[in-house]
Amino acid sequence: MNKYIEIAGRKIGPNYPPYIIAELSANHNGDINRAFKIMEEAKKAGADAIKLQSYTHETITIDCDSNEFQIHGGLWGGKTLYELYKDAHMPWEWHKPLFDKAKELGITIFSSPFDFTAVDLLEELDTPAYKIASFEIVDLPLIKRVAQTEKPMIISTGMANEEEISTAIKVARDNGCKDLVVLHCVSGYPAPAEQYNLRTIKDIAERFGVLSGLSDHTIDNATAVASVALDACLIEKHVTLDRNGGGADDSFSLEPKDLKALCQDAKTAWQALGKVNYERTEAEKGNVKFRRSLYLVEDIKAGEKLTKDNLKSIRPGFGLEPKYYETSLGKVAKYNLKKGTPISLKDFND
């Protein structure tokens, strides 16, 4: 397994800060200026990349209102698939302006293609990477086509079983993909945190020999930040300007302040992991003097012995360590010593 991959020069792996993808998805709500604004806010928040979804209602489904094409219940209940994707899709002609905007902002941009025509479009735009959405993990011809570009690939695993994940990884690798991150995901919108089973992230890495991360559809940041402790090297979250904006994905997306918190907290969590360490840290070194040590708590004269009445283990820590308490009892002072004197064996005879 590679210890890291690179997307647009940014190294991604357990030994680097978590790579944060701001998923724009359908939160443009039909307005390219809203999409631009989301990109600006993502950059300000500290996200590493903006991700799009590249499909149209014509390429992802057909205009049919039979029962199989109806959405029953949930966030999008009452619509047909065609109606949902017609409202939600990112127009083809928006892609170049969005890629240009990302270059202007200095933020990486790439997309999830949903068919070959989307891959062709993204190749024309020289996308630096690709994302395979959870619903497309079973579309092996699409994975093969993306792998043949030999660009980094990220695959989400929502709804997929072990065999489907293994097959998708094999197809990607067999067709030229060398740089791969596999994201644990629960395809619920939103998804309950208690169903996320975050320990799967580490198992994905070990079982399949890949870098692993998290595609998070919970409504806050706790799940995403916790994933860092399980070596998630990449976190994807949907972002919006306003959760009450009325768009297809707005209600379970992060607003700018929450995205900023995620970027900061995920990095802090990664820094806190550090390494196995039993040495004194820099933050601790100045506090050693406040440990307990052995002190005189009464004046004693030359020739007098240390006793349980005049010798105590107290703070601060400039005297002998408390472990020497028993062996210090009975030692004889060489000269007069005042209360508050730290015990040093040079001041006493046996």
UniProtKB/TrEMBL annotation:
Entry GO MF terms: N-acylneuraminate-9-phosphate synthase activity
InterPro entries per record: AFP_Neu5c_C_sf (IPR036732), Aldolase_TIM (IPR013785), PseI-like (IPR051690), PseI/NeuA/B-like_N (IPR013132), Pseudaminic_synth_PseI (IPR020030), SAF (IPR013974), SAF_AFP_Neu5Ac (IPR006190), SAF_PseI/NeuA/NeuB (IPR057736)
EC number: 2.5.1.97
Keywords: Transferase
One Pfam family it belongs to: NeuB
AFP-like domain: residues covered: 293-350
Keyword Amino-acid biosynthesis on entry: no
Biological process, per Gene Ontology: carbohydrate biosynthetic process
Source taxon at top rank: Bacteria
Name listed for the protein in its UniProt record: Pseudaminic acid synthase
Organism expressing this protein natively: Vibrio amylolyticus
